[in-house]
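Hey L., structure's done. Input below.
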Amino acid sequence: MDADVIVIGAGLAGLQSARRLERGGLSVLVLESADAVGGRVRTDRVDGFLVDRGFQVLNPAYPAVRRWVDVPALGLQRFGVGAIVRTGDRTTTLAHPLRHPRHALTTMSSRLTPPSDLMALARWIGPTLWRATAASRAASDATLRESLDAVGLTGRLRRDVLDTFLAGVLADSTGESSANYVRLLLRSFAMGAPGLPAAGMQALPEQLAAALVGGIRLGTAARELRDTADGVRVTTDTGSLSARAVIVAVGPQDVAGLTALLAPETHGLTTWWFRATGEPRTGPFLLLDASRPGGGPAGPIWNSAVISEAAPSYAPDGRHLVQATTLLDRPDGRATEAEVRQDLARLYATPTDRWEVVAHHVVEHTLPAQPPPLADRAYTWAGDRVVVAGDHRATGSIQGALVSGDRAARAVATRLRV
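Output:
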């Protein structure tokens, strides 16, 4: 045997699986087809700028992050709890009144936050804020769209703010995601301010990997799994390996290539990164667009941010880094550079013809679809000694990936001891 357990995939789920197994006294070998750990959580350095592959944030309020990640060591640079909303030729800053008291009056008196919408939002999210996560998962579920309609949250707060913000978070503009899942996400946003590690989002998986004793073989893709009398044989590009059990923690699009399970549905987005000239100032807030009649973005961009305002380490001193996100489930999700640049000029009310593209990422499988009802399975057995883990088995988030990996490892350890 090459190891007690082979973990295929060095994303968050795979790395947490390996850590849990090693803590239980089992030997682990991690195989990763890419040239670095992280899976979908990767960061590139381009001309002194840090650019993540897809706009991502780390929420320190996630229970799994609090439990298994050394957040202070990451040097988290936090975003503001709120957003700047553009409606035509004006912008409005909406922010958490306790965390950003100077924006409290503007937030509460804005046309975007009518009292009827605020009351409906309180009815919708209130129970989730106070009850346990397990109870929230078990509650009756529906699609996000149906759930918000049911409580009467149909005004400008919904149309101009929530729908646009959540579409960017979920990489899904259809409103078909689980309402219970979205409630849990917003609960985490209410409890903590998301941010970016000083060295980029890839610092998170690198921290997890640094704790491993066993090896991580980069550039090693698993091609086939085969049951043997005493375990599982893994065929790779360079030979074969054997273990008593295997955890498959690959991206959702690759699950069907190694198991008999179907590949889960996913949603995608693109992220443009620009070196901006001038002084684009939004502070540490996300910029949302609500300029289309009836609500929503008037162009291809669903959210943008001056990343260097919230995370100075992402840009060299004196330079500005701007991200812009489009959604692949929309007809304009693959907008051209010229179209994105034009939309940015409208959003920031400044010329962008001299802005330079630092990077452009098309992330086809950003997040798994999360339709109702919200299931709490975390992992799936794909054979007597093969387990599939990942955020697509739990919830499409860093929280879901870590929990899935941890529970899969516990299940494998229990079976091996038996």
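The chain is about 30% helix and 25% strand. The chain has two domains: 3-42+202-264+371-417, 49-57+75-197+266-368.

-- N.
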